[in-house]
Design brief:
mainly alpha, single chain
Length: 202
């Protein structure tokens, strides 16, 4: 039993510590700027947006320009293809802003999911420790494993993003990873995973 417990907590510790380091790197050390950014002002403006409402306001303006451009085209002229739109204004800005809004909404939903499922993991952990200490080692250990799995999965690294909401997602993951590590240390102490039984002298 002790061998299984030690294996589980060591693997959980390795996963959480590596994820925590990855989040810290992404927040403070990962390069986010390119020498080409000065040639791509719309994307830079999108990355500097501070809220979803700000992106939506910009999108409304560009969307009106797109609708006007469509109405101003002769009926005999074929509509531009998707590839052509990516090179033409205002279609290019409309595509980039729509993509940024959808990405922001996905990140916001992911933050909600992380907080919800991490809280479920915390409840499982508390139940697991209580059951482990008071009634059944195996049921308690199963709940502790389930809790650690929730912590590890929902705090796993996110690799793509460039908006403020991406930074907020990283901060959530970093903080919850640190709290998960602290809780793991408490569990190790409470269930005495690494405690050695004294040798029986005879």
């Amino acid at each position: 039993m002790k061998g299984l417990e030690r294996t589980i907590v060591v693997l959980a510790f390795l996963a959480l510590i590596s994820q925590t380091i990855r989040h810290a790197y992404a927040l403070w050390f990962e390069p986010r700027e390119s020498v080409l950014d000065k040639f791509d002002k719309p994307k830079k403006d999108i990355a500097e947006a501070t809220s979803l409402d700000e992106l939506v306001r910009r999108y409304e303006v560009v969307r009106k320009q797109v609708d006007e451009a469509k109405q101003g085209r002769p009926n005999t002229e074929p509509p531009p293809t998707y590839a052509e739109k990516q090179e033409m204004e205002p279609f290019m800005s409309e595509i980039e802003l729509r993509t940024a809004i959808q990405d922001w909404e996905r990140k916001a939903e992911e933050i909600r999911q992380i907080r919800f499922f991490w809280t479920i993991g915390l409840v499982l952990l508390l139940l697991g420790v209580v059951i482990y200490k008071r009634s059944n080692l195996w049921i308690g250990l199963t709940l502790i494993i389930a809790a650690l799995s929730e912590f590890i999965y929902w705090c796993s690294p996110t690799f793509f993003g460039g908006t403020r909401e991406f930074d907020r997602l990283l901060w959530n993951k970093l903080i919850l990873s640190l709290v998960s590590l602290a809780l793991l240390m408490v569990v190790i102490w409470m269930i005495r995973v690494f405690e050695e039984k004294p040798a029986i002298s005879g």
